[in-house]
Amino acid sequence: MIHSLTDTILLNNKVKMPGFGLGVFQVSNEETVLSVQKAIEAGYVSIDTAQIYGNEAGVGEGIKHGLASTGKKRNELFVTSKIWNHGLNYDQTIAAFNDSLASLGLDYLDLYLIHWPGDNEFLEPWSALEDLYLSGKIKAIGVSNFEIHHLKTLLEKSRITPTVNQVELHPRMAQKEVRAFAKEKGIQTEAWSPLMQGQLLEDETILKLAEKYQKSAAQIILRWHVQNDIIVIPKSVQEARIKSNAAIFDFELATEDLAMIDQLDNGTRVGPNPDTFFFE
Fold first, then answer.
1. Active-site residue identified among 53, 90, 133, 213
2. Is 166 within 8 Å of 113 (Cβ atoms)?
3. Which residues contact residue 77 at a Cβ distance below 8 angstroms, ignoring those fewer than 6 apart?
4. For the chain, which end, N or C, has fewer CB atoms within 10 Å of the first or last residue's CB respectively?
5. Which domain holds residue 253?
6. Binding positions
7. How far is it, in rounded angstroms, from Cα 209 to Cα 178?
8. Which segments are annotated as binding site for substrate?
9. Is residue 137 part of a domain?
10. CB 133 within 8 A of CB 8
11. Can you tell me which residues bind substrate (predicted)?
12. Which among 177, 171, 163 is positioned nearest to 126, based on CA atoms?
């Protein structure tokens, strides 16, 4: 379990990934610049974006400003992006990676993910990611939104085991089976939409615990992720919220309170189902 913003989790290729970071899904390119800068200034070292978000350039600009204002170095940050792999062959995947790198203004990525499995549209792109990893242009490679059967197919065909599976994960969608399978295979689980796009912030159980611990609802939920060894990347464009989201390392949820939150799991998604999302 991590104990600070800079604490890391060891991936299966021995790369250290911060357990807490900033997500920028549905954030405009312009807003992203300031969001990323303020996050770095607040002590964040992990930033997560994706090609389809259309804000990689903003992330890169925010990183540049954040490094300049804090004196941090590029190698102190952990930057993730994802490839929108719909219909891409090997060469197109390489080209898409190079485009992302150029947009970010970086010369390597710490983590690069296949964004969606689609209708098994990941084997050729994965082969390209493996070669990019072996050439040293990416520190770690992984996947996003993969169900167990997708992971099994990939593991049967791949040369390199993915380091991370980033999935929709929150107390209403706890992904226990996917997490258990990933752990068995040495794959780290990472949560997107950890606050269920805000839908959990008024939940009665969460609010009761927020009162008990004198914390916000968001802090209770994010702490639940951390204590379950799930890497988490909450999104915010507000400086106060960016700081508040990270203020979860001065308390610990009791075992019985973790169990209360576990009871909220009913399989409710706010995003697409990977088994039916085929890049429509």
1. 53
2. yes
3. 40, 45, 46, 47, 63, 67, 110
4. C
5. 8-262
6. 115
7. 27
8. 115
9. yes
10. no
11. 115
12. 163
Q: For residue 271, tell me if it sits in a domain.
A: no
Amino acid letter, residue 167: V
Going by C-beta distance under 8 Å and a sequence separation of 6 or more, which residues neighbour residue 11? 17, 140, 163, 164, 188
| The pair of three-digit structure tokens given for residue 139, joined into one six-digit string | 């520190």
When divided into structural domains, the chain yields a total of 1
* Per-residue b or e along 58-71, where b marks 16 or more CB atoms closer than 10 Å to that residue's CB: bbbbbbbbbbeeee
90: which 2 tokens?
Answer: 């090997």
Residue 277 maps to a domain? no
Residue 4: its pLDDT value, please? Answer: 97
Q: Quick one: how far is CA 98 from the chain centroid? A: 21
Q: Which amino acid is at 16?
A: K
Instruction: Tally Cβ neighbours within 10 Å of residue 278.
Output: 14
In DSSP terms, 81 is beta-bridged to 112
pLDDT of residue 280: 65
CATH number of the domain enclosing 180: 3.20.20.100
Q: What is the mean pLDDT of residues 116-144?
A: 97
**Active site annotation includes 53:** yes
CA 77 to chain centre: 14
**pLDDT tens per residue across span 35-89:** 999 999 999 999 999 999 999 999 999 999 999 999 999 999 999 999 999 999 9
**Under a CB-based contact definition with an 8 Å cutoff, are residues 16 and 46 in contact?**
no
Percent of the chain whose pLDDT exceeds 70: 100
